[in-house]
Recover the amino acids of this structure.
């Protein structure tokens, strides 16, 4: 029996899987807020209770919103700050009297979808979490790629790639309507021409200072991430990032308090301002994922998290990313998760083969 635990900021969830991957048990409890020792006891208690109910002892995998430092064995980069600097693996192993495997929750999501989800049967899977934050995980041949620094897949804290048509002072080509149409415009073709406007060639693009920063030409105009850096992908592609972009767009007008779910619903109903916000989001997501394709070249990119339920992304983003991918064609697929909100906890269980 495999036991998987998803240790989140608001809930701790456990799942028990049999050898065929069938669910034997699934339960959740509230996460003790800001209390590390209580959190460790809650995880151990869930494991022990699950084993009593099922009547079997299992392997234990835990997904966390952070990573375990290879150097110290302590937790780093965690959204749940009470975990940072703590020996979570050691403490759980002491209570449960067995080895415990710990992985980033996005890695667990990617593993779940690679084993028996939307990425089953392919070689390279990139799993993306688009929710309160932005995360990513890589699975190759059914195994999580962790990396030398235990940060493989952490694309959310890279800088958002620039929009070549958004720089201040650039005269957009005639007929240019909005950022997401860049894929069809000559400014993105280094040796391209055009029948109107003043298309930028490769040398001109390189010569434009601070080209296409989402916040404009001034670095100070970019929002600052909780990690201390400016312009992180998470600031634009997370749910709060989408809502913040909409507020900047509409100012004090109606809709300034919309959340991501409201923006998606209103856009589907024909709201022009919300639709424009989603178009900007799609263009940014396309540029960000194109970087992943250029580096990793995955067979499939699988979206999870709340924003993965925006169905138009799966048609529009691949249409846009081709302008930024260094290939004559893009075979990478963009698909929705199969296991929904259970992907993370299932992936934690699958940390044991």
């Amino acid at each position: 029996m495999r036991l998987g635990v998803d240790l989140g900021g608001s809930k701790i969830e456990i799942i028990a899987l049999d050898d065929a991957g069938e669910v034997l048990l699934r339960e959740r409890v509230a996460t003790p807020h800001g209390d590390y020792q209580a959190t460790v006891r809650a995880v151990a208690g869930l494991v022990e209770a699950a084993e009593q109910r099922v009547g079997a002892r299992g392997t234990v995998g835990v997904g966390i919103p952070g990573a375990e430092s290879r150097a110290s064995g302590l937790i780093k980069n965690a959204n749940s700050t009470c975990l940072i600097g703590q020996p979570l693996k050691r403490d759980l192993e002491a209570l449960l009297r067995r080895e415990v495997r710990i992985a980033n929750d996005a890695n667990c999501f990617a593993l779940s979808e690679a084993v028996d989800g939307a990425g089953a049967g392919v070689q390279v899977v990139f799993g993306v979490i688009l929710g309160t934050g932005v995360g990513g995980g890589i699975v190759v041949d059914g195994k999580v790629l962790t990396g030398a620094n235990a940060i493989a897949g952490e694309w959310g804290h890279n800088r958002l790639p620039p929009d070549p048509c958004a720089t201040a002072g650039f005269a957009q080509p005639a007929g240019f309507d909005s950022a997401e149409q860049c894929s069809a415009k000559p400014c993105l073709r280094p040796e391209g021409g055009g029948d109107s406007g003043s298309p930028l060639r490769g040398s001109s693009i390189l010569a434009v200072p601070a080209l296409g920063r989402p916040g404009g030409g001034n670095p100070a105009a970019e929002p600052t991430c909780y990690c201390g850096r400016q312009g992180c992908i998470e600031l634009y592609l997370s749910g709060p990032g989408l809502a913040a972009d909409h507020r900047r767009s509409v100012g004090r007008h109606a809709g300034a308090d919309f959340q991501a779910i409201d923006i998606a619903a209103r856009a589907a109903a024909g709201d022009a301002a919300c639709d424009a916000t989603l178009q900007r989001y799609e263009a940014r997501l396309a540029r960000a994922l194109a970087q992943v394709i250029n580096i990793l070249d995955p067979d499939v990119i699988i979206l999870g998290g709340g924003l993965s339920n925006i169905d138009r992304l799966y048609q529009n983003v691949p249409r846009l990313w081709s302008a930024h991918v260094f290939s004559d064609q893009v075979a990478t697929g963009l698909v929705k998760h199969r296991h929904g909100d259970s992907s993370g906890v299932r992936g934690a269980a699958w940390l044991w083969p």
Remarks:
- Residues 102 and 332 are 29 Å apart (CA to CA).
- The first helix runs from residue 36 to 54.
- The mean pLDDT is 87.
- The chain has two domains: 2-117+341-349, 213-337.
